[in-house]
């Protein structure tokens, strides 16, 4: 028997807890648990006579992934899951920017906005791909983004109408989300979301009205945007659409998130999933904002604090904290069945690359026409491999991160959540111990000596990571976030 490389054991409120990043099990680490770990470390495990109680505990520790059989090579297993995620063929995801145009002028925008809409030839190319996917895949996931996608709503409705007919004809599963600034999300748009199965909406609020309106400004207008967006979020929630509210923070607005939460409560928006976004100078276009950005570590701690506040203020506590889940690959860029489509039909792997011709992998109008350079760009993303990076091979959260955002250069970027993991786990302990799990002391005592007291059950190793990441976790709540909010 071996100790898992992915155990994280921590003290909290005079107890010891154990988390395993391969299975994401969270358990109370009893004295008996710690003794078994010690015996394995000291190589005395096989010399100690086992009672039935010990056997049960050992079984539970194996189930939680805290100890593994000698023959089980965890790193190789993760590599297998990584390849399985990258090359699985039962899930197709497409992120579509129907326009680059935007009605807002945000200082941290990573896209150079320009007026450009899709023509019929591009729309036909997209339809060919989605029809083909519907014929062959079990699940199709579409993400609308931009620019501001609702400036091209006729394109969205028209393409969605076609997509619906393909999935109906071939029996594929279909889901769709939209990333919008929310300003144009009126009753008509919401009616069409319902009609075209756009069941998840992500909008951005950067603070209370005064702060938000100074950052999320309309282009060529001084009209405020905050109150319009709040009203639109309410309409969407009332219509049964899942709404994620992203709050982009940097040094300028990190102090006003509590005030924003109070406003959301006053407007009865606690059904929304609220989360923080890290403002970063992602492209040359927005590099002037570097000085105001928070470091990864500062951002991660702010994220954990924010989740505590959400719980304290009575937001839907089952969403929070944003509990880690294992992943096979990081995003749509490093998997074979994902594409990002620009308004001119250019195809990319990464949400950030859109409008960068150097990273284009072809055009949807004629995918067969890809040249050597574009093929290599695609191959570079898909073969992104954290297992060749020493730091990742040794990292105890590799199953949660898989090397982070797969830049083409095999340069790894640790996920922000790495820096707030222990805080997140502590919040989870508080939430679970507060609502009854293991809260009965007598029962807890008994379980500690017989079975392992799991606060979060392990994901079985067979299930781990087969749910492929779609889209960009940096920009969309669909990745790396609780799956719960999608189920509204
Ligand atoms: S995480 Fe986002 S930015 Fe990074 S490669 Fe993937 S899609 Fe691109
Ligand atoms: S990128 Fe960082 S957090 Fe992710 S696996 Fe590698 S070392 Fe770990």
Describe this structure as you would to a colleague.
- There is one protein chain.
- The chain has helices at residues 31-41, 52-63, 74-87, 120-136, 153-170, 187-195, 209-215, 226-238, 257-266, 296-312, 372-382, 390-393, 398-401, 421-434, 441-449, and strands at 2-3, 7-12, 15-20, 26-28, 67-68, 91-96, 139-144, 173-179, 198-204, 242-249, 273-278, 338-341, 346-348, 362-363, 454-456.
- It has 15 helices and 15 strands.
- It has a domain at 92-294 and 328-414: TIM Barrel.
- Helix content is 35%, strand content 15%.
- Helix 4 (120-136) packs parallel to helix 5 and helix 10 runs parallel beside helix 14.
- Mean pLDDT is 87; it is low at 479-488.
- The chain is α/β, with parallel strands linked by helices and 488 residues long.
- The protein is globular.
- The strands form 3 sheets. It has a 9-stranded mixed beta sheet. Strands 2-3-4-15 form a 4-stranded antiparallel beta sheet. The chain has a two-stranded antiparallel ribbon with strand order 1-5.
- Strand 6, helix 4 (120-136) and strand 7 (139-144) form a beta-alpha-beta unit.
- One iron/sulfur cluster (SF4) binds next to helix 12 and helix 13.
Please describe the topology of this protein.
Layout: E1 2-3, E2 7-12, E3 15-20, E4 26-28, H1 31-41, H2 52-63, E5 67-68, H3 74-87, E6 91-96, H4 120-136, E7 139-144, H5 153-170, E8 173-179, H6 187-195, E9 198-204, H7 209-215, H8 226-238, E10 242-249, H9 257-266, E11 273-278, H10 296-312, E12 338-341, E13 346-348, E14 362-363, H11 372-382, H12 390-393, H13 398-401, H14 421-434, H15 441-449, E15 454-456
């Amino acid at each position: 028997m071996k100790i898992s490389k992915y155990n994280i054991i921590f003290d909290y409120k005079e107890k010891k807890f154990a988390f395993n990043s391969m299975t994401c099990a969270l358990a109370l680490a009893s004295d008996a648990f710690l003794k078994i770990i010690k015996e394995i470390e000291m190589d005395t495990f096989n010399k100690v006579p086992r009672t039935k109680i010990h056997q049960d505990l050992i079984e539970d520790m194996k189930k939680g992934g805290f100890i593994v059989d000698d023959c089980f090579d965890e790193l190789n297993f993760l590599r297998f899951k990584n390849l399985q995620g990258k090359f699985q063929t039962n899930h197709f995801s497409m992120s579509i920017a129907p326009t680059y145009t935007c009605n807002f002028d945000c200082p941290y925008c990573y896209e150079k906005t320009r007026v450009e809409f899709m023509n019929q030839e591009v729309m036909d190319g997209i339809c060919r791909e989605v029809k083909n996917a519907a014929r062959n895949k079990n699940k199709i996931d579409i993400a609308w983004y931009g620019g501001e996608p609702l400036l091209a709503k006729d394109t969205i409705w028209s393409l969605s109408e076609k997509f619906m007919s393909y999935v109906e004809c071939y029996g594929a599963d279909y889901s769709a989300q939209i990333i919008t600034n929310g300003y144009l999300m009126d009753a008509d748009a919401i009616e069409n979301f319902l009609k075209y199965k756009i069941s998840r909406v992500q909008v951005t609020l950067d603070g209370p009205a005064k702060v938000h309106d100074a950052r999320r400004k309309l282009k060529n207008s001084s009209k405020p945007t905050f109150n319009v967006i709040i009203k639109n979020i309410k309409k969407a929630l009332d219509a049964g659409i899942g709404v994620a509210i992203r709050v982009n923070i940097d040094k300028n607005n990190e102090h006003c998130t509590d005030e924003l939460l109070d406003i959301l409560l006053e407007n009865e928006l606690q059904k929304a999933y609220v989360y923080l976004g890290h403002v970063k100078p992602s492209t040359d276009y927005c590099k002037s904002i570097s000085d105001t950005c928070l470091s990864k570590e500062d951002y991660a701690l702010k994220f954990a604090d924010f989740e505590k506040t959400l719980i304290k203020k009575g937001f839907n506590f089952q969403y929070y904290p944003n509990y880690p889940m294992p992943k096979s690959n990081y995003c749509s860029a490093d998997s074979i069945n994902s594409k990002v489509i620009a308004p001119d039909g250019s195809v990319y792997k990464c949400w950030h690359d859109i409008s960068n011709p150097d990273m284009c992998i072809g055009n949807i109008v004629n995918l067969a026409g890809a040249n050597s350079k574009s093929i290599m760009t695609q191959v570079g993303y898909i073969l992104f491999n954290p297992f060749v990076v020493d730091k990742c091979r040794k990292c105890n959260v590799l199953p949660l991160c898989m090397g982070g955002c797969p830049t083409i250069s095999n340069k790894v970027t640790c996920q922000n959540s790495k820096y707030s993991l222990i805080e997140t786990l502590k919040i989870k302990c508080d939430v679970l111990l507060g609502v009854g799990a293991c809260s009965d002391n007598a029962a807890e005592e008994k379980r500690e000596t017989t079975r392992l007291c799991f606060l979060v059950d392990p994901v079985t190793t067979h299930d781990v990571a087969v749910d492929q990441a779609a889209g960009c976790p940096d920009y969309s709540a669909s990745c790396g976030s609780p799956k719960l909010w999608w189920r509204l």
